[in-house]
Amino acid sequence: CIYVCVWECSACLNMASGSEGAGNPPTKLQRPPNRLGLEKSSYLLQHAHNPVDWYPWGQEAFDKAKQEDKPIFLSVGYSTCHWCHVMERESFEDEEIGKILSDNFVCIKVDREERPDVDKVYMTFVQATSGGGGWPMSVWLTPDLRPFLGGTYFPPRDSGRRPGLKTVLARIMEQWVDNRDGLESSGERVLEALKKGTSIATNPGETPPPAPDVAYRCFAQLAHSYEEEYGGFRDSPKFPSPVNLMFLMSFWSVNRSSSEGAEALQMTLHTLRMMALGGIHDHVGQGFHRYSTDSSWHVPHFEKMLYDQAQLAVAYVTAYQVSGEQVFSDVAQDILLYVSRDLSDKSGGFYSAEDADSLPALGGTEKREGAFCVWTWLEIRELLPAVVDGATGGATEADIFMHHYGVKEQGNVDPEQDPHGELQGQNVLIVRYSVELTAARFALTVEKVSKLLASARAKMAEVRKSRPAPHLDTKMLASWNGLMLSGFARVGSVLDDKALLERAVHAARFLKEHLWDAERQIILHSCYRGDEMEVEQGVSPIAGFLDDYAFVICGLLDLYEATLETDWLRWAEELQERQDHLLWDAEGGGYYCSNPADPTILLRLKQDQDGAEPSPNSVSSLNLLRLSHYTGRKDWSQRSQQLLAAFSDRLTRVPIALPEMVRGSMANHYTPKQVVICGERDAPDTSVLLATVNSLFLPHKVLMLANGETEGYLYQRLPVLSSLTRLEGRATAYVCEDFTCALPVADPQELRTLLLA
Q1: Half-sphere exposure (Cβ direction) of 686: Cα atoms closer than 13 Å
Q2: What is the pLDDT of residue 41?
Q3: Alpha-carbon torsion 112, 337, 516, 700, what sign?
């Protein structure tokens, strides 16, 4: 299937013309809620006062469509989507359009983050029939849920050659009466073609393609798309794409002495450096925005997504492991500071996202993109007026800060990056000079300038607290919480930061308490922050999807390696068994994204692209291999191979589409090292050996602790551990392949040499 990274309406940007017919906010506030008022999703609640007879996705809506023989209007988006807000304001708040929709269609509103299975099916249809995709997504269906027309954003009324939503609705109503058979048959033909085109299965006797060949081809394709000046893999819009960066570092790890390996590392580190300097990185509030609208990472789309923070934290701490450069460690910690402060629930869960739009600081009733984050020249002048002792020309703190961060009196945003004029006269902070160059420019010490910039950022953070905050989507998803669990566990283990590891454990406990249904033995996809700040479930809890299982299992495996507490390993094994039972395709190999028995999901998809999030099949290829080494279960190693074989065609032709799965292929090829530390978990000699392992980027390894408790979880599954003992009573490390081990070592430097061999 084709997958589009969240280019919120890259095609729709051209459509966003006028706002005639926009609703009146007071009317919205006075209007009684529709059915969506009973929902928990922030996105659905944003539409609860529309003059549209909305239904949530479910049997009530399906039955109504069949009983009244009406077409379905399916509208899909998410709560922090800018163009979803625009369409809601322009069209769904319009009384006339609302009446047309309610009288002639069964209107269903879906949060794509809450129901990714529904979103994937109809986005596949929209992409296949229109050549593009994005959100908001607008699709018209027959009463039996078969799509016959689809698009993304529609303006409310005609604009030039582009038909507005009102016109489109009129034409559909006419065609539904006069040409219904034609609509249904054309939709059915497309659906049948999609079923064939999206099928992914192993041919009889097929094996995965050779991993070194696939990895080299993936590297070559990424190198071809690499943008040398600022890093990244296209000119604009430019996405962080951590899956690409993690692959390149894995590729370097097995090609360290080659020119290709050196190039892969250079591409990665340069991209991460430029992102950290750019406006996509929030220099005042920490964390990263969704993507950059330009090639230099300067002007972002300001929304912040949990899954970006999670993956970028891992990418930056991995860059620290391979380079030793403190800046990468600092950025990883910066991300986790933002998540801990702004995206964390007291229960231990993580919220989904912060919106790009908010009300302007100086007043106004219309939200603007980036209003919470941008600055005028005058604001900074007034906030930082003090003259700095010893600075050339009597420079003030503002002079030094604005020089360093590229602030201009007229604003520093190119009009091309601001088509709606929302950022006119505003500045997006971007580091223009190193601290050393800024210090030299004003004849100050590096230490003094560093302190001055940090103090200025802290003052600006205080100012931000007084600004109207952007909407916070407090929905908590198992999948994204699993990714964030990995982020805290990985960064905490590399930096030996106990507070980060405690936060990771808190997150894992949250997942088990609130998103694991022990009675039904399934993961639940989502839960929500209630009005009293408590964790709530929806009326009909949503069963977990493949990404929920895969990402949580990966997070638990990372948490085990960070804490060496086997309870997390035990739960990961349990979840993998449930994932296999519910979602494995026994005939074709690989996992379905959602329950294949659900009759309302018309396509049985296996996501075949690592995009803004990795494909859960990609993550599963690694999970299975890791678990096989922890449990001794060869069937899971074989299943990982079967999964890779199912995606052979994609891996062979366009591995750039699946860089995370290429990592899984490499891990299967380069047999993982089993690193066994024999010792007491908290003993100083054990900690030194663990710190040595954690300081290195070893993508093809599993780490385990053998503490002598032969009745424990690991010893029961891996009896060979009983034969590994300490040297002279000291903590001892064994580096093994299939438990054929090199000579044991107790010296950290000897262990380091052995691991890098």
Answers
A1: 17
A2: 96
A3: positive
